[in-house]
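so i finally got all the pieces together for this one. its two components total, 642 residues if u count the protein bits. some of the lines might not be protein, just check the labels. i wanna see the whole assembly predicted at once instead of chain by chain like last time, that was a mess tbh
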Amino acid sequence: MKKQLLCGVDLGGTKLSIGLVRLDGTLVDKVVAYDHTKKNETGLCIQIRDMVHELLDSHRIEESSIRGVGIGFAGHLRFEEGVVITTSNFPSFKMKNFPIRRMIQQHFSVPVIVDNDANAQGYAEFLFGAGAGYDTMIFLTVSTGIGAGLVLNRRVFRGLTGTAGEFGHTIVNPQSDIQCGCGNYGCLMSHASGLALPQLVRKKLEQRVKTDLVFDESTQINGELLKQGLDAGDSLCRSVVLECADFIGIGLYNLFQIFNPPVIVLGGGLMNWGPLYFDRIKEKFYTLVRDMLYDPIEIALAKTGPDAGLIGAASLLLEGQ
Amino acid sequence: MKKQLLCGVDLGGTKLSIGLVRLDGTLVDKVVAYDHTKKNETGLCIQIRDMVHELLDSHRIEESSIRGVGIGFAGHLRFEEGVVITTSNFPSFKMKNFPIRRMIQQHFSVPVIVDNDANAQGYAEFLFGAGAGYDTMIFLTVSTGIGAGLVLNRRVFRGLTGTAGEFGHTIVNPQSDIQCGCGNYGCLMSHASGLALPQLVRKKLEQRVKTDLVFDESTQINGELLKQGLDAGDSLCRSVVLECADFIGIGLYNLFQIFNPPVIVLGGGLMNWGPLYFDRIKEKFYTLVRDMLYDPIEIALAKTGPDAGLIGAASLLLEGQ
């Protein structure tokens, strides 16, 4: 009998979620931990093993009856080798060059697959979400960072190393004075990601844009704060959100010209900014695309919801099947 | 016996070249015409038929012994349907919505395939040129316009309509005051293509950049003129060429982040600007890429030479074989 369950591991910098997922992308159950970054690499692998087994035991499921363990990782990987290149999300231990797939595989008898979280979430959207029914789909996650998952002709396109889809690093404004963490000026990430928000707010304050919010040195400027400001009708927050939307709109337009896809799916935390933001993204896209659109394109919000990371990780086990 | 010959048709706005090409991409013979844009669409199809037959007859080859007729077309196409969307290269007749593949196919008993010229040249580079030996290759042609041919996992990626790879239209400088023919400001084409040169030169003249050249209203500002200036050591020409190179370097960097390819091949007329230009492109690329390059990437010049259009068109017949 074909195995009917997948195990997904969402390995983020804040949260480690592990879930059992059905072949239709629905979640059976999950366990979550927040203490995983306090361990070292080996300890983390053991924690993943233990949490998976805890979950399986609680459902009286044998390891051998799941199809495998799919892991979505918040960082760069050499996909073929299953080795971490870099990550800025696990400051407490050196993930660099860690052979994560092999180290986790040794704890399991079923196959283990590891990919970055944008690819994982993108593939879940392709199978179960807003990309379902298409052969090609571009997934763009707009969160702390910005990344794309490229599903081309039903397969995730990963490139030579495994880092294809690093769309947040593309330069969209070389005259910009905003520097990204990557060191460059004017990449999409420096204009429209969660990481960019402190700089974008600071610029607006310098330009004396009106605001009812009080920003001092202790203020955590992030997507949530901007959302609160937006809901309260704050002009500064609104102008930052619209400016971010314009850059994401440019990004979508560039993706359109490059891939001519039938659908682009947007996910990630900043999509919580809501209709004002999403509508402005689409408005900017259509302003740029004008008469160059020969077939309709769908611009959709991700559908896999709060467990997208988990379901995405699990969905990696279905690729090519 | 497997058919050993291909027929390639390079259908450009200036020149119509038709050639017999071997399976290894070498040219047997060709015929060329410059009067093809004076005809109407039907007349053009008949001219192609007659020129192909003339070429076959002169070599005493039956039509049935060639593998097919591959056509590289300077314009947008619906690839699946073989229908022209738009072209700005044939002003004397309305190619819009012309079912070019069907209209040419009716004159032949062997298969006819039509694709845009960037895809065709890119595929020839992949099979026979600087991309040979790789599974994935990005081809960028920098000429009157700018376009990419995307060969991903050995197949040309064309997107929904057939217009994937329109990389010249990606926005790389939204603050720009240079408008492209497409209507947008700051796309790659408006900063680094042959079409952009008159505007770029005009801006330099306004900025009073020193030049020994005399520009009046009758001066044809194109790649060749800039090349002459460059060879004569003219400061203005040099600064325009370097500025174009910087934008192409940004384009390569963006392609790298999106596709993580093992090789990017550069072709098109402006590559004749030579080492000063090509070296500056690479310099800009590596300045941006810094420590984000985890595996070596080859940045190469196209190798298929002056008959690239022809050989590319013929090579389309080999796709998926």
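Chain B has two domains: 5-126+307-318, 133-302.
The mean pLDDT of chain B is 94.
anyway lmk what u think
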